Structures are given as structure tokens and as C-alpha cells.
Amino acid sequence: MNGKRRKAARERLRRMREKAKERAEKEAARALPKRKLNGGAAVAAPGVEGPGAPPEKRTPNRKESGGDPSLATQDATAASPRDVERQRQRQIDALERDVFELSRLTNPTDATAEDIERIRHEVDELRREFYAHLGAWQRLLLARHPQRPYTEDYIRLLFENFSEIHGDRGYSDDPALIAGMAWFHGKPVMIIGSQKGRDTKQRLARNFAQAKPEGYRKALRAMHLAAKFRRPILVFVDTPGAYPGVDAEERGQAEAIAHNLREMSRLPVPIIVTITGEGGSGGALAVAVGDRILMLENSIYSVISPEGCASIMWRDASKAEIAAEALKITATDLLQLKLVDEIVPEPEGGAHYDHEGAAKMLEPFLARALAELTQLEPQQLLDQRYEKFRRMGQFFA
Questions:
Q1: Tens digits of residue pLDDT in 251-283
Q2: Closest CA to 271 of 116, 376, 344, 345
Q3: CB 298 within 8 A of CB 188
Q4: How much is the CA Rg of the chain, to the nearest whole Å?
Q5: Residue 201 burial by CB count (10 A; 0-12/13-18/19+): exposed, middle or buried?
Q6: For 3-44, what is each residue's pLDDT tens digit?
Q7: CA distance 142 to 137
């Protein structure tokens, strides 16, 4: 039995070597210089995509498609950028499963173990390369991944003795926002954070992390409590935006957000904001006026969702990918625009693969920012915070 399993493992290893060789040949072909045709126009060699060539197929004309325009449309959309990314992701996942299965079936002392380890490193490198060059839309999909760590996960992994605060003392409690006191590295802090749900029941209970006015008022009550006892405030943002329902508008949604913006700018304690997933519109900004604004590598921060932007600009939500690129929603774009202060790296493949790893990567950023800000006097904090937000957007002037 063991002989048959080893033979099967060797056969699969041989096929994986062939796949790796084909992949290397394709990469080498893509690197070939373009040749000149049609009066000097640069095109790729026959059968080879150029380094800058789009992955879509060329749309055939009516004659080439036999007079049926639907065939031309189908051919043009058959290999869209999104489909290419998904196909590549599936290929990488399949390779990882093959490597795992081979490792399980192969004796560690076998001669093939070294080859398997080499292929594992190659697959890891493919995954790193894939996630290092994601576009804005792919980052958005990762930011919305249902298995990403939420505020409760960071509280469990980074803090001690968390004591939650409920209610706004005016209307009710809003489970879309979490607020409470805890200890971080032996120091008391106040935590404010968005909370999505893992399944449909939890998402409905948390209202998909879309806070209502009572949620923002609860957060502000907790912040005033932190200011009274001189406790730093740590905010975790992951929300598509404030809840747009009629009941929220009736209770003063816009006023609650505006009041938070004003009051947060006046709080005499350090405020450290971390965008952990989606940072959507005023619903995110209502708790994101901070002295330090951190963004996880695959998070997004935007004045509007790409779907909403596409619906307004083109009356077509299917153009959301174009809107995502134009909005500059990724951490890299926002760091270049000086709207955020630092980018926090994530584990390979994204934070949803490894919650503990994501928390460990975030921890030193929080600790360093906290150590720097707690050394400043309250008036220095207020002056720096004012100047920080006054500088935003001056590149448009």
C-alpha cells in the first residue's frame, strides 16, 4: 500500500514539475521584446501577450463573428481582468493543495521531499507576487472578505480585561459599534470599533456594521469618558458607511456624525485610528478623526463605495472596477496622498488567513504610536491634530 502511495506521489510531483516548467516558459515568453509592425506600432510576438498587454481578448468585428454581435460580446468578456485574477487564484490554491497532499503522502526521508520543499517555496513566491500586485478592486474584495478579523478579534488577541460600554443614554444601544475599556501593554485604554457578523444572523444583529445615530453617540460618550480619565483612544474601523435608513435619519444621523467630527477634534487624549477593512464614507470618518491613522495593507478608505460612485457617474454599477481605480481607495494611494500615516502589513494571502498573525503585525504599530503620543502635552496633541487635518486636500488647491 505504501509503495502505491509513493508511486502516486512521485507521479503527481512529476506533473507539478511540468506545470512549473510551463509557467517558467510563459514568463520568459512574456519578457520577449515587442517587434515592430504596421508602420512602427509595437505589438507582442505571435501567441505571446506583451508585458503591458491587457488580458482581455480582442473584440472581433461582425464579419469575424459570423454576423452575430452577441458572439463578439461573449468573446470580449470571456477573459476579463477579474476572471483572469480569479483563475490565477484558483491555480495557486490548487498547487497549494497538491503540495500539501504530496507532503502528507511522502516520507520525509525520501529523495522527493527536497523537491517538494522547493516547489512549496515556488508556490509561496507565486502567492506573494499575486497579492503584491493586486489592483484597487481586488483590494476591495479582500477588505470585504467575511473571514477578516473584526474588532472583537483584535480585542481578544491584543487586549486584556475588556469591559464593554452599552447605550448612548438617550435612545438605545447600537451593536454595530463596540465601545469599552481595556488594558494594552499594562496601560488602560478606551476601544471603539465597528463589528460585522460572521453569518447572516450575526450580520443582521450587527446591522452589517452600519451604525445608527445612537451608535455614534455611544462612541462619543465613551470618548468623553476616556478624556475625563486621561485614557488614550484606539479606534478600529471596518464599515461600509453609516446606516441610510429612514429611522436613522429621523433620529439625526447627519447631526450625530457632524457632532462626532467636532468633538473628536477637541479631545485632549491620543487617538489612534486603524482601518482594518472597509472605511466607508462619513460613517467611517465619524470615528476616525485621529492623531495617527493606520491602514492594513488590504483595507480601503473612501468617500463613497465604488458601486455608488459608478451609479452616480455612469448610471451603471457594473463600472465599479473603473471607479475603484479612480477613487484612489487603497492604502498605497492614500499614503502617497498623505491621508494616512502608515501601512500595516498583513500575513501572506491577507488577514483572513491568519487572525493571530494580523494582530501580531498590528501590535508594534499601535505600541509605537501610543508611546509617541502619550509624551505630548494635551495642547500639543490638539495643535498637531488640527494641522494634520488642515493639510489634507491642499494638493487640490
A1: 999 999 999 999 999 999 999 999 999 998 889
A2: 376
A3: no
A4: 25
A5: exposed
A6: 666 666 667 666 766 776 676 566 556 554 443 334 444 434
A7: 9
